[in-house]
Amino acid sequence: MSTTTSASPNSYRKLDVDNVAGGGGDDDDGGFDAGAADAAASLSPRELEQTANSRLGDVRGLITRGNVAAAIALAVEEPLPYGERPDLKAAKDLAISAVIEPLTATKTADIPNVVKQLHQQNPELLDRLMKFVYRGMAGSGVGPAGVVGPGNITGVTGQTAAALLNWHAAIVEVGGVGTIARVLTDRKIL
After folding, report:
1. Is residue 2 assigned to a domain?
2. Which of 16, 85, 91, 178 has its CA 20 to 30 A from that of 4?
3. At a CB cut-off of 8 Å and minimum separation 6, what does 49 contact?
4. For 149, phi and psi rounded to 5 degrees?
């Protein structure tokens, strides 16, 4: 009763996934701008540190003027120092400080409105911001030269932890749980 066919065991496939360009998802960018990440990879650690230091000064100026949404958008702008290389530590500390400072300076009641502004400006900003929220939760303190960030991984202060949790809740409310999934599955590590 069975019929013999000459079809291959994979004949049910409409697309030969083994031969698709991209080699099995290694080029998946996790929803982030791969071109900007490539630009960061082309910069030396010293150049990334200078960029992060300059950005931190600009962010502090925006915070002083009361423009927290612009400060956060600037802080999470590419190029960011991705990777586990030890020579990127100073650039990472500055970049993380540039994000944590406006987050902790924002009044709790203003957080949902700032998150909505960021989402309207560019939904990817929420994903990048969530990366920094998780990085801040992983370890925050006062590092070298008074920089707020993971320079001193001794634990998160109570005020910083509360602010980060408030930001996390607001980001998830606006961006949905997809924001968490995209951040956790992204291969670019801060």
Report:
1. no
2. 16
3. 81, 90, 91, 94
4. 155, -165
Q: Give this prediction's pTM.
A: 0.71
At 74-113, the pLDDT tens digits run: 999 988 888 888 888 888 889 999 999 999 999 999 999 9
pLDDT at 23 exceeding the cut of 80: no
For residue 118, the domain's CATH number is: 1.25.40.190
Question: Does residue 15 fall inside a structural domain?
Answer: no
Q: What residue has token string 């994903």?
A: 127
Task: Indicate the SS3 state at residue 39.
Answer: helix
Domain range enclosing 176: 30-185
Greater confidence (89 vs 119) lies with 119
Does 154 fall in a domain? yes
Counted domains in the chain? 1
Q: Is residue 140 part of a domain?
A: yes
